[in-house]
Amino acid sequence: MLIRTFRERWLNLARENGLLRFAVGALCITVALQGCHMKKLSERTTVHVHVPEYMQKDFTIAAAGKASLTYTEQWALSLLPFVASFTAETVDFNVRQFLLYVHPKSYHPISGFLLEKSKEIKASGVAQAFFPKTVAVEEEGAIVTVSGQRTRVVGNVVTDQREVSYRIGFELGANNRPLVTELTEDEGAQNTDEP
Fold first, then answer.
1. Which domain holds residue 74?
2. Is this structure's pTM higher than 0.70?
């Protein structure tokens, strides 16, 4: 009787040891697989993408920091309303918002141009609207030219309508943030005076 009890206990312990060995082995394999997975995750490259407000087309950004043409085109169309459509009351806000996207090396010339324009707009009380017609992307996506009709209004009177082209240069900064390096406004011939 004593031997039989001892033998039963021995077999129960052997079964329990087998289950414990299996559990420990499964845990060791799980930890090893999890370690391999964590190593792969740590080797991944993180890419930051700043998405423009006006996003109508798919775009790509290469690992080397080169953006597709549609990426800079959409950024130009998103930023252009800040400098092309405004009223005397909103021009200061628009200029501040646009300057957030200006490259530090180009900040002084662009801010000087925009602040001078802001003073002129506030002094005359002009409201301006820009209606884009064409967009051209050149120099491997670094320069975007948007052409369209600019209409200026004082009160309820249209004072000026003409074709205007805005040329915006871009450079991808840290974390692929698009930064404006160039901003020019080319005024074409006047279309109509007061109606």
1. 69-192
2. no
